[in-house]
Amino acid sequence: MSHDEKVHDAHGAIDAVWRMEAPRLIAGLARMVHDVGLAEELAQDALVAALERWRADGTPDNPGAWLMATAKRRAIDRLRRHQLMQRKHEELLHELERQEVDRPDSDQRLGDDIGDDLLRLVFTACHPVLSTEAQVALTLRLLGGLATDEIARAFLLPEPTVAQRIVRAKRTLAEKEVPFEVPRKAELPERLSSVLGVVYLIFNEGYAATAGEDLMRPALCEEALRLGRVLAGLVPGEPEVHGLVALMELQASRTRARVGPAGEPVLLMEQDRGTWDRLLITRGLASLARAEALGGGRGVYALQAAIAACHARAPSADETDWRRIAALYGVLAEVTGSPVVELNRAVALGMAEGPMAGLSLVDGLVDEPALRRYHLLPAVRADLLEKLGRLDEAREEFERAAGLTRNQRERELLLARASKVIAER
């Protein structure tokens, strides 16, 4: 093997280790130094050291522990170098030095607090003092191990914009003195809801990209699924976590069927169900059962997962239990009060009771302010009008929907459907 090949292999191994270990490393360091920004810097320092050492010496048996030990030594050096002699820094320095004596080097397992540290990091990255955009960027950076340019590409944003969000987020956490801790029991449901919302937002941007040339960005779906599974392991008694994992797994099971050979969208009723991922479906149904067993059957994510399960269980599109889906959307509408849920219920009613029933519900949503610029409102209305034979109205609605979407693939599909309606006349 040539020198260049060895260097390439070493970089590949280090990159793989970093993706797996970075969240736990940053979480453990943040608990020690009480500063998420500093923790990430120390973790990056350890990564640089690994790049230098591992190329020559090979990857250690316990790379996570090696990185942690190196980062802790860098923390001690930094505290000494800056002569931070205030009482809290003296105590921190003594604690780090004591840990270095008690648990030296790479043979020592990472601490038993890994799970707690990761949970603290999740809640810190998704703290309500940060905007939703900042929470998403920081979560992907700290917990996903994604580089700034990767996050920027995923969301079709300029790299400086994402970098600025991350820097500001870390500065805000430091300035507001946000504690690195799991919320108190009374605060947990609200804060956990925010965390789940961030994870699902990441998943949705991957599953149905809001803009750009691609319908999907699978890497974001995979990252959200990984984060969801980590959360399920950290708080196994919270039903909505399992509900969210179930929903993401069931939706992700259709990934291969959602896009055609040329990257074009394939509608649910036209998908080849033989390409749906049966393993993800099995896992999703198991997660849904867990959520329901924990008493979370009426949770927002569990209800959506139950709807996805109706599709997953149907051997063919014609055998879909649309009446049950409509009923579940009815419950979900009661829980959320969301006009988007009502729009989805209209689709289900149109399938269960005929297009006129669906159209009546859609027409009642036309003046909803939240749906005014939502491209799926005219798209659903167009589909129902086409089924009723009102082709001129359907064409206008398909064209209006195409004008509202920012996703090129969706626009092409909607314009193609408008052309098809014209041909049917």
Plain-language structure description:
The protein has 4 domains: 3-110, no CATH class; 126-179, Winged helix-like DNA-binding domain superfamily/Winged helix DNA-binding domain (Arc Repressor Mutant, subunit A), CATH 1.10.10; 190-319, no CATH class; 373-425. 71% of the residues lie in helices and 1% in strands. It has 20 helices and 2 strands. It has helices spanning 3-33, 36-57, 63-81, 87-102, 114-125, 132-142, 148-154, 159-175, 188-207, 218-234, 239-252, 255-258, 278-293, 300-313, 322-336, 339-353, 355-363, 376-387, 391-404, 408-424; strands at 211-212, 406-407. The protein has a two-stranded parallel sheet with strand order 1-2. Helix 7 (148-154) packs across helix 8. The chain is elongated.
Keyword list:
mainly alpha; two-stranded parallel sheet; 20 helices; 2 strands; Arc Repressor Mutant, subunit A; 425 residues
